[in-house]
Design brief:
- This protein is mainly α.
- The protein folds into 2 domains: about 70 residues; about 240 residues, MetI-like (MetI-like fold, Orthogonal Bundle), CATH 1.10.3720.10.
- It is about 75% helix and about 0% strand.
- The protein is built from 13 helices and no strands.
- Helix 3 crosses helix 13.
- It is globular, with a radius of gyration of 26 Å.
- The termini are far apart.
Length: about 325
Amino acid sequence: MGIKIANALIAIVAGVGSVLVLFWAANALVERLPAKISDRLKPWVFVGPAVLLIGAFLIYPAIRTIVLAFMDQGGDTFVGIANFTDLATDSAFHQTLINTLLWIIIVPVSAVVIGLLVAILADRLAPRGEKFTKSMIFLPMAISMVGASTIWQFIYNWKPAGRDQIGLLNAIVVAFGGEPQTWLQNQEFKLNSLLLMVILIWLQTGYAMVLLSSAIKGVPEETIEAARIDGASEVQAFFQIIVPQIWGTVVTVFVTILIGVMKVFDIIYVTTRGLYNTNVIANDFFITLFQFGDSGRSSAIVVVLLIAVIPVMVYQVRRFKAEEAMK
């Protein structure tokens, strides 16, 4: 263990030191040039490596993925839009799209609403109670999706009737005289998908609560008091005074969670692996590529996801620019 720690420390020091030496040498070289040229090149000395890394690890893979989407299973022969045609006519992929849409609608809305509710209620507690409550609700954010999925599997676990139920839900059901339920296999009314969504809502509520609580604390108390003097109830003051002033934060939190939901994979893979009509796009891509080895179809799935994400990103960038222009 000691050797591993020492190796890690050496790697960190060597890596950071190498970067510092690189920037120092590049800066010293640029400063030797004429002033006009030096002023133009200096920003690129510091921004250039980041741009190269983004190009190598983000832009190039994206372009490569788009190219592979028009190739066959092995990625060798051009097949045109055949992969997209197959997806468009595949009923299983249609079900995957429906599931993904449900996740997109339910999870961000639920996380924002619950986070906003908790933020409002926690702010009314004494300082010590507020800190404790917010810490407990934010704690799941420190857990990975794989870890959270494993935890919730113990809640949804099912054993045949007559055996000890280690799943919390079934233990409660059996304690009240009921029969143990196969929660994650129950496709009625999309119950299994909804139960999986609960995991991500549980993880994201703390994130939403922290940002929204900070925004609420930034609302001038004078505007709230003025509304109360004018006869507004607490509910009216909340929806007509507080919410409009924190709406930018609400949208930011919603979009951030939405982007995460569109890429959700870990929860599905750990719990059901996409079976029982619980599959989503990201998990479908993983299975198609690593289980079936179909690089063409899997790339087409990624392109579909990319196309779905782009409008959200464009909206977020435009809204950010609009907010910056108002400052």
